């Protein structure tokens, strides 16, 4: 039987493509039976089919229509991920509603989200009674979170006097002191990796009393040189000494979010409330993040594609079993057994041991400040 290869079409914006589709990923995937093929966004997706899987981070009604038409013609193909599921993350209110759907019991740790409200107009913004439940400082974030540069423009607001510099619609999220450390949790199917990064420094009551302006920034965990706001604070912080969240705890949250949101490729940002050592807050969720920043991301993604290949081949065998059992084919039991063995052999040759749901996790050195688990 000829080797069954997985054909993955990737449809990405130029910037995303340049960062994610590295030669190292292409060559590793190819060596394990996976062909990553660029989808020309100027042509119809159907004209470039077939694909076993479509990996995408494109938006708009035309693209959604193309995906629907592709799925109708190739119902067994895998779409990573559903546009409807992805769109939930484009709104910073609906984004974090998934956290409320999680139930994790019998743990010492607790989790949730910071207090937040959405402001749609300037009148509400200056109406103190409209959001009197929030305490300063607050973080102002654009309501839309579509990955654009504009959606990353945020500000730490110290008092009411700075509100006139904000433009609704925005989300006001209560700032919680968290030791200047944020935990970024990357999810790729069943694989999870937690890393720690620098975040905004804590705000003292004294600083809150004297601050008269707001602090504008973009991505909290990747402050640009001109956005460094307290170098002495970071020097005293000792990021390497910061304790990681419990692996099993992060594992359960990742599993719960994956099922609640029906997404395979995302990351979420977690902070530890300085007032309570076992209280964690999820502050942001992003679809298809910058995986290339993860050491060994090529192996992680290739393992994920192999998992997809395994499941597709398993479904093909089960489908043939059903046909055989209903007497709609001339295949005898010996032929079916041989086909199943071929599938197992292909998986073994291309994707490791072929255990269902198994994804290899590489050991990480301490200097990487990372934790890897599977769910």
From TrEMBL:
Q: Which Pfam families match?
A: Ins134_P3_kin, Ins134_P3_kin_N
Family to which this protein belongs:
Belongs to the ITPK1 family.
Q: Which residues does Mg(2+) 1 bind? A: 269, 284
Known cofactor(s): Mg(2+)
Q: Which reaction does it catalyse?
A: 1D-myo-inositol 3,4,5,6-tetrakisphosphate + ATP = 1D-myo-inositol 1,3,4,5,6-pentakisphosphate + ADP + H(+)
Q: Where does Mg(2+) 2 bind?
A: 284, 286
The organism that produces this protein has a lineage beginning with: Eukaryota, Viridiplantae, Streptophyta, Embryophyta, Tracheophyta
Q: Which residues form the Inositol-tetrakisphosphate 1-kinase N-terminal domain?
A: 7-86
Annotated residues for binding of ATP: 92, 141, 173-184, 199
Q: Which residues bind 1D-myo-inositol 1,3,4,6-tetrakisphosphate?
A: 57
Annotated ranges, domain Inositol 1,3,4-trisphosphate 5/6-kinase ATP-grasp: 107-306
Extract one GO BP annotation from the record.
inositol trisphosphate metabolic process
Top-level class of the enzyme under EC nomenclature:
transferase
Organism, by scientific name, is Senna tora
Q: Which PANTHER family match?
A: INOSITOL-TETRAKISPHOSPHATE 1-KINASE, INOSITOL-TETRAKISPHOSPHATE 1-KINASE 1
Instruction: Name the chain's protein.
Output: Inositol-tetrakisphosphate 1-kinase
**What EC number(s) does the entry state?**
2.7.1.134
């Amino acid at each position: 039987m000829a080797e069954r290869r997985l054909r993955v079409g990737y449809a990405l914006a130029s910037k995303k493509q340049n960062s994610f589709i590295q030669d190292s990923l292409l060559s590793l995937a190819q060596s394990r039976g996976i062909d990553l093929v660029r989808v020309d966004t100027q042509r119809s997706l159907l004209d470039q089919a077939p694909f076993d899987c479509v990996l995408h981070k494109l938006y708009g009604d035309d693209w959604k229509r193309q995906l629907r038409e592709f799925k109708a013609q190739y119902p067994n193909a895998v779409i990573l991920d559903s546009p409807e599921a992805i769109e939930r993350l484009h709104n910073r209110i609906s984004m974090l509603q998934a956290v409320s759907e999680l139930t994790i019991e019998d743990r010492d740790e607790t989790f949730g989200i910071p207090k937040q409200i959405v402001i749609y107009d300037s009148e509400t913004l200056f109406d103190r009674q409209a959001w009197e439940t929030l305490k300063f400082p607050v973080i102002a974030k654009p309501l839309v979170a579509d990955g654009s540069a504009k959606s990353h423009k945020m500000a730490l607001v110290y008092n009411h006097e700075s509100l006139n510099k904000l433009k609704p619609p925005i989300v006001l999220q209560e700032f919680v002191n968290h030791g200047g450390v944020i935990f970024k949790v990357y999810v790729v199917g069943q694989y999870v990796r937690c890393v720690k990064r620098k975040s905004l420094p804590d705000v003292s009551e004294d600083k809150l009393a004297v601050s008269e302006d707001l602090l504008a920034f973009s991505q909290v965990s990747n402050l640009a040189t001109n956005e460094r706001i307290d170098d002495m604070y970071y020097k005293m912080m000792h990021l390497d000494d910061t304790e990681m969240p419990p692996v099993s705890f992060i594992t359960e949250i990742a599993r719960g979010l994956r099922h609640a949101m029906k997404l395979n490729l995302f990351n979420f940002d977690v902070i530890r409330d300085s007032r309570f050592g076992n209280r964690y807050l999820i502050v942001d969720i992003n679809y298809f993040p910058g995986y290339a920043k993860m050491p060994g991301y090529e192996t992680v993604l290739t393992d994920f594609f192999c998992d997809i290949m395994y499941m597709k081949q398993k479904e093909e065998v089960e489908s043939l079993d059903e046909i055989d059992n209903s007497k709609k084919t001339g295949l005898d039991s010996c032929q079916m057994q041989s086909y199943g063995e071929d599938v197992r052999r292909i998986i073994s040759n291309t994707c490791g041991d072929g255990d269902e749901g198994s994804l290899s996790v590489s050991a990480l050195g301490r200097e990487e400040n990372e934790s890897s688990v599977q769910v």
